[in-house]
Amino acid sequence: MALLGGTFDPVHDGHLHLAQDVRTGLALPEVRLVPAADPPHRGGPVASAADRLAMLRLAVHAWPGLVVDSCEIDRGGKSYTVLTLEALREANARRPLLLLVGADAFHGLPTWHRWGEIFELAHVVVAARPGVDLARDMPDALAAQWRARRVTEASALRSTPAGAIYQQSIAPHPISATWIRAQLARGKAGRDAVRGLLPPSVLAYIDQHHLYLPTSPPPQDAP
Ligand code: ATP
Fold it and tell me: Which pLDDT score, from 0 to 100, does residue 219 have?
């Protein structure tokens, strides 16, 4: 079972291609997209959990093999990945669990709650992200794990339930939710700029629900 956690605020093509490229690269039947309820490592999401979940459900329609898992939103509280993996591990002690992360999230792993235990619960599959140098920016504690756990044969992810780090190559998609939100907050010009970076159904949802609008009205011209 493979998971891609995230804020998905909003879901964009970078997330979808990451999940799909890893799915096909590793011949996985599905990848589960798991939106965080209350992400512990950042300011709160801009959109509500219900809106982020609804956008994800719309997004995966066009992506067979990608499914949405609302377990962290249903659980509520802090969305610690280690708790999600523990619950999955309790349900099945032997099946391999794969945690997918982009390079930026991978670099942040040592700040995650009980991060060392994540390797006891799952394999970590890391994918490149444009603008992030995987080798250069790796914190020392993570580099030690990388040296100890890195495997280059995908078969290692099937033969053991957890404990390996594997780098999967994916097509680069230089897209971030932060950039999309910033564009949408600019109004019409920004909205045109994000077209093609996220599914049309998600953009339509954003329009219908008036998400990511500027927080204050533009300054009025002096009379
Ligand atoms: P934000 O810009 O608000 O930080 P984000 O675009 O990074 O958001 P998240 O929901 O935080 O989106 O990311 C979830 C996961 O997807 C993380 O592991 C992240 O590294 C990965 N990811 C997001 N966008 C890309 C991308 N364009 N290429 C590769 N990985 C990505």
Answer: 52
